[in-house]
């Protein structure tokens, strides 16, 4: 689609205190910008009063961009409702609990399923898109923005939830049986008996409720996309920008209604990008650690199993007034190339300016508050030149992968309310799903391997596509999927199973099988008990090489070996009776079972055993990742995530893409530096 | 009543996905189970719709149990209201604050004082009990379940609270005077002026409010017990199962309406049972530390000053999905014997199965989710055999005691809202009453002494019954009780007084006396100031032998000696002017005053001075407790709460009850091991 | 006005369980008390029912006081509404959020702007003041008590807020422009569109909302003062007692409606008074650290730039039942003399008794609960004798100052919602304004300098009044004020600018200038980026002498030097490119820019460079402060804030005021000791 990686920023000229449109666009052009995103936040500007529209103000922006060869991504403004609409129909206000309305004054306060909202949203969408669809600058549309921000408890939403259960289960007796409502006297006599979600403590209810909430988001975005498509040109795409941490988003389902995946990866800069990662900062809507930046990229690729747009990512600072941490020199380039290496076709900063008013005054843009180009602009300009130098070679990459990991959004949701893991202080860890998942992902990353993430909905069982398949914490799984996993191993795949996988069925009912349910026989291990642990339990390797400090953590399955080989055992008077990691050949393949959350040292050791990295003996802070270009060439990205300059001997011939010169077998990288290499065709 | 300790589990066949009744009962019989508890959680099964009853489903369970010699404890199902009832009368929903209803979806959401609830509860109770009272398996009834879970703020509850004040105080002027309502302009002109408890900050109000709440629970449980007794056979008992940490329970008052005490002690397993206790985990509805397990047993004995039933206790795991910590081998046996040694006549696990659905999916039962006997079943089976071997000798024990401690539920309540102690970070410690009480209990336990706990309502002043009486934190006390304490010492008792005792009267009004009020003269010390302390203040002994590390902590009374001997002083430039512990002979007895929260080392030293343990020089992890059997013999329980095997020389002849062999003066215990010894008649 | 420092306590005889009026007053007289405060808390005693008044009960207190030469400060009782009034008009209940009423049961629950409240408040005020205005004991009035405790969200309050915006901005279009309401679709079409403050996240709204709330407090107190003045004698003053941490108080504006400033400084005792301050305890309504006690005194002086009354300060304990920390011997005297040295004309403890009931039972008074004089009474009696000995010499002091600091209440407010600083765990620090301000204040204090605090409203630009002016965190500032700062330096002042100063305009809009806005050129440095830092960044001095451990902390401006000299730089691979502190001569003066929150070592070093202390080489725990007496003499206060006795050589001749003897050039101070010296006229 594009000759080079799309490069740019969200651009809100309407937020500026002075007219500086020409200056801004000239600066962008100088930085080799090729795209801007506009218009998605200002419904009250598009429609200052009920039914009175003001559509022309954007024209100069689109014209100015077009005249400089900058493309435009046009947004629909539905995520921020105008005050007049909030005043006219207070019933459209979202409710966080039954009857408890979200206060107005921010954005995304609305029950977007309410017809009173839909009527007005549709009207303004049609006006805007009709007005600008033909503008030559417009290459695509973003409908709404970071949807799925709330679990809506409004009356209508709940009633439709009950309807959806009625349609699915038919009668209350079936629901009583499927959900085990005999428990604690919850059996319904009629659909009207169903309690609202506020007080609910039953996991089975929660499974349905979270899926229903995500369905609302998918339906809403799909509805918008369909409206926009009535006006869009065939060469224009429709997408939305996904914040992957939002509670009501099933990204794989959502993107089916869209042409492209677009996501907003935010990451901690400065020491937050050190590798190996030493900090204990937790993950959230911003990631912490280099490995976590790659994980967010791989999740974006996974939504549609294809290259994606980065609609927003860190400019100078990310978030609240007390969280300013602009990058060290080099880090913006590093992060951008990291994203591109994992399939990003666009890098768009949030945002060009820095706001002078409003909540996000300290969400620093490419330009500081002064509006004068500063350090980040200089860094961005260098990056723009690099993208131009690399051109189409890196514009549509397929990221390489050594191992595949299976991702289960429903398991993630359920563990938010019913976490299997505790924090160090004993309190529940609402990110327990990622507590398991990330430990494996990071181990692979630290071992120099690359990961493809597959949603369970995307899993075909193909061994060729995924010679190694890692499946931790697949807590909710129907029997068909579990059988498919065994068949995958039988067909030659290396299935690596982590704790909690297969434990419950699709209704979150603990299975009556010996665990891991449906997998135990083929894996050659089973368990019927398990334990949380507060301190790491040291391990000793019998079947693989461990570095110092390897340990199990947080969770231990009490594995009984029944045919498998023991790779790793615990050094503990109680847990020592059970192995930590086992492996067993099954059919043409193999099943490795990991009965704990491996700490970083253990996880990296496991993955080194699973598959050696392409390049070994790298200096501590250096990573090498790779991708395949549209024309089939192998591209390598060499990063130095540290303050120490490093020398690197290359294992083979390669061309330095950005310097456009041969490497002569050696690379020297400065602090926080990155190189892009292309290997000769083989 | 019984030939051996009742042994069993709560059994909910109605929760099982498959019919496995015969299998379950056979497994129970094999494990020597003698009792199950049934039926208390499923009102919506007993009465699927308003007025339509389904009473027969339990028959096979009772029949099957009976045929295997397993007795049944039948529950009334009132703690979990059916959805149809919740729908019909929303006004019965409990309110946590005025007008703020508890969400439906769990259990115990109801205002159990509301006549709309009472009507339906009475009807279903009568139906069930009438149906099964004659069944030969039924030995007793549990009415409701863990009552007193909420402080109900419903309109009717509050209005009856005002009525109760009117009845007690007669007119508002009296209330104004008694409660000091001149303060901050709170004087009432009429009963209608009384503010609701939500905003209340006056301690005097809180005293009445908490007692009124507990009265509601007592009345409700008594009301149910009386209904059940209309149907019960004379050989059947009525009880309820008490969770001692519930906010609206006065256990000594509650059990007066019942035939027997029944309680639910839950405790942390694994390292939570290490002795001496090193962890810093706090107490809650689960205890932490071996000493705390004994404390919970002694509190159960105290409710009625008689042996008690353990209706629920840990099976595999206790609580939330992130809190799985099944015991080390041996610990379940250790804990069961510990409870029996302190007067338990029944050990009933919660529960037999592990649930496949619902909130408590990870509240692990005797059987794992697979339903196949595992490690715990094997441990339980060994324990069943041990109970059989010990037989009637241990079935109705009176636990021995070296010291008696006075317990004040109203003082505990008041300190929840007005804590005298802070956490390490300076925030209030809502468990301040136990912050004082536990420090003394644990010191006695660590010194090898056994404790009888007396409620203030049970205190008679008898020196013979209680040669040593320890009274910490008796903050709320009327003058009569304080005078009784002095008389007790005068009559020959050793009264050990801790901080805060006697400080306030029964209305929580600080007394105008020099402190400790009414006790100062006889104790030979007084104070008029006190201080919280954030770091431990080291002490030096002048009158008793201290180990290393002895210190005062959290609170220091500024004691002025006026006739007492100083036993311990502070090593501090400010606090050093005051003694930490003093003692003075008074009449035929003695009053020892402890002006601080003794840390474990100081507290153990104090109790070693008060009374030497029966057996001394025990290995670090070993405890010895004792009880008197129904036939008057002394039984000793020797526990090794550690991973280290130990050898023990016995001070005298004894017979090993479980091995049924003489001990030959020596015992060797493995890790987490226990022995039961009976001494020859003397 | 007075011959010596007024000395006394709040006195609530109406709260006592027994009549002990004569005893109390005798004890006070013996302790040389000269003032009591009465009557402000008991509206329900003044008016037991609607319209029925009981006004005579106070007469004996006033008579008894007067007969002993004790003056009386008479309070109006409006801060605690009687229950009958709360019952009659529930609509006067304050709302913390829209529609969310504060529970009754404490005090200050009322919407004091509501006419239903005003009607009753006015009636009772007139009754009381009319009754007692002529009493010879009464020297002044306190209206209400610690006002501004809540941000009131009542309907009427909000509607008047909208009215105030309408009056200020004229039309919604102007408001849309000024507040940047284009952002996130917030443009209003009509005044009715304005959202309530609950959900607001826009800084511009917050600026107006907080000022409006403070205006309500000022208007209310002024209204009361005006009523009282209708009755007051010319020799009587009117004030209120200010808790400076209350959310709705602009103290400089409030005191314009009053004759005198009166404030309530509470401070942590025991190790909370150690100097230098080592603890990490944070500041709140109680201060922690000696420097912070002086800061609270200097803030009281600043309200009206004149001597002030201390209406309440620590007696035995301050606050909740878990916070008892009565002072070490000497500390009460130290603190009282510290306050006097900074301009206090009255020291009044809260309070004489200790309450036997109510929330504040553990807010220990001068007397303990026993009512018998104890350690504090003895300390107080010594202090009373000292005040008598010092007499008029110290009764009306003007505190000396070496440096002046500019204080911005609006900046403080804004940073409560939009903090620039984070706590160590990354969470926002709601006291961020003081996070900046206090770092500078403490540095000056540690360097032996004294500080005058000026509100921005009081700044005249005079170099003579303020040769050194320190301005940190002046985030909200209009252009005129920034220009005035530059003019001040030009005229010869030494302007010391800290981070965040000038960043935003009066509407909290980030300025479009290069920063520090309007100051950059004259300061010779500018920045356009900045960073929060989690760990201290070490510095190295190039232009001033640093001790060990000097570091920048929490915040770093990325300063580019453009004419200034670099005094201090960072030792860091990233931040090292920028200086930490620069200085540049400007006009006849100088501008020093500090681009970080200096840690204590760096801040003290900075102030040692700015100005040498009067006395140097003091022992570690010793401070010397000074003031000018009414007759123009220099008084010095020498404190030893430690357990170590110290010897001190004096730099010049001085007379020991309290011992009434010459010093002979030497002083020896015991632990927690204080001396008052007067220097001979020069």
TrEMBL record, chains A, B, C:
Domain Glycoside hydrolase family 42 N-terminal: 11-388
Domain Beta-galactosidase C-terminal residue range list: 621-678
Span of domain Beta-galactosidase trimerisation: 402-610
Domain of life: Bacteria
Signal peptide range: none
Reactions this protein catalyses: Hydrolysis of terminal non-reducing beta-D-galactose residues in beta-D-galactosides
Enzyme Commission number(s) of this protein: 3.2.1.23
Alphabetically ordered keywords of this record: Glycosidase, Hydrolase, Metal-binding, Zinc
Record-stated family: Belongs to the glycosyl hydrolase 42 family.
The protein's name in its UniProt record: beta-galactosidase
Source species: Kribbella pratensis
UniProt lineage: Bacteria, Bacillati, Actinomycetota, Actinomycetes, Propionibacteriales
């Amino acid at each position: 689609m594009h000759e080079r990686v799309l490069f740019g920023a969200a651009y809100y000229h309407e937020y500026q205190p002075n007219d500086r449109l020409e200056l801004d666009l000239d600066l962008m052009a100088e930085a080799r910008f090729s795209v801007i995103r506009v218009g998605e936040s200002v419904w009250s500007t598009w429609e200052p009063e009920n039914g009175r529209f003001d559509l022309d103000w954007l024209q100069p922006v689109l014209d100015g961009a077009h005249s400089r060869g900058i493309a435009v991504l046009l947004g629909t403004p539905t995520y921020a409702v105008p005050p007049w609409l909030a005043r006219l129909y207070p019933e459209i206000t979202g409710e966080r609990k039954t009857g408890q309305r979200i206060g107005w004054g921010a954005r995304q306060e609305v029950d977007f399923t309410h017809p009173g909202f839909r009527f007005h949203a549709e009207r303004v969408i049609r006006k805007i898109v009709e007005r600008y669809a033909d503008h030559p600058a417009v290459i695509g549309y973003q409908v709404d923005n970071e949807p799925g921000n709330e679990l809506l408890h409004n009356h209508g939403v709940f009633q439709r939830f009950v309807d959806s259960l009625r349609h699915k289960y038919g009668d209350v007796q079936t629901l009583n049986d499927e959900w085990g409502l005999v428990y604690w006297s919850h059996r319904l006599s009629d659909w009207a008996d169903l309690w609202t979600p506020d007080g609910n403590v039953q996991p089975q209810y929660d499974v349905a409720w979270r899926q229903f909430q995500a369905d609302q988001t998918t339906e809403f975005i799909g509805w918008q996309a369909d409206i926009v498509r009535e006006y869009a040109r065939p060469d224009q795409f429709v997408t939305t920008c996904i914040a992957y941490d939002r509670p009501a988003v099933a990204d794989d389902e959502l993107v089916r209604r869209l042409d492209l995946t677009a996501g907003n990866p935010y990451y901690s800069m400065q020491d937050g990008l050190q590798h190996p990662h030493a900090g204990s900062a937790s993950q959230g809507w911003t990631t912490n650690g280099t490995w976590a930046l790659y994980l967010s990229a791989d999740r974006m690729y996974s939504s549609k199993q294809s290259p994606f747009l980065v609609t927003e990512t860190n400019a100078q600072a990310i978030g609240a007034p007390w969280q300013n941490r602009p990058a060290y020199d080099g880090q913006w380039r590093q992060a951008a190339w990291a994203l591109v290496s994992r399939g990003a076709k666009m890098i768009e900063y949030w945002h060009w300016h820095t706001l002078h008013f409003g909540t996000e005054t300290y969400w620093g843009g490419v330009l500081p508050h002064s509006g004068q180009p500063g350090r980040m602009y200089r860094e961005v300009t260098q990056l723009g030149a690099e993208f131009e130098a690399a051109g189409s070679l890196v514009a549509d990459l397929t990221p390489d992968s050594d191992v595949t990991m299976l991702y289960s959004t429903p398991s993630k949701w359920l563990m938010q309310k019913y976490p299997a893991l505790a924090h160090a202080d004993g309190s529940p860890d609402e990110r327990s799903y990622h507590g398991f998942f990330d430990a494996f992902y990071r181990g692979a990353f630290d071992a120099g391997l690359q990961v493809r993430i597959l949603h369970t909905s995307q899993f075909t069982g193909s061994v060729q596509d995924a010679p190694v398949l890692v499946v931790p914490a697949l807590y909710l799984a129907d029997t068909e999927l579990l059988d498919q996993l065994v068949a995958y191993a039988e067909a030659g795949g290396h299935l690596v199973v982590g704790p909690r996988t297969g434990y419950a069925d699709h209704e979150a009912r603990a299975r009556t099988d010996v665990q891991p349910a449906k997998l135990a026989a083929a894996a050659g291990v089973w368990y019927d008990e398990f334990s949380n642990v507060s301190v790491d339990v040291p391990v000793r390797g019998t079947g693989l090489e461990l570095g110092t400090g390897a340990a199990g953590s947080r969770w231990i399955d009490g594995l009984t070996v029944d045919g498998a080989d023991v790779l790793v055992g615990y050094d503990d008077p109680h847990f020592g009776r059970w192995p930590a990691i086992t492996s067993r050949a099954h059919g043409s393949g193999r099943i490795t079972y990991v009965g704990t959350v491996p700490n970083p040292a253990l996880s990296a050791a496991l993955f080194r055993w699973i598959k050696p990295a392409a390049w070994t003996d790298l200096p501590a802070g250096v990573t090498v990742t790779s991708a395949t270009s549209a024309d089939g060439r192998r591209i390598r990205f060499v990063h130095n995530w540290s303050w120490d300059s490093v020398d690197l001997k290359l294992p083979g011939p390669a061309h330095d893409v950005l310097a456009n010169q041969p490497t002569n077998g050696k690379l020297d990288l400065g602090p926080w530096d990155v190189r892009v290499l292309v290997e000769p065709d083989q």
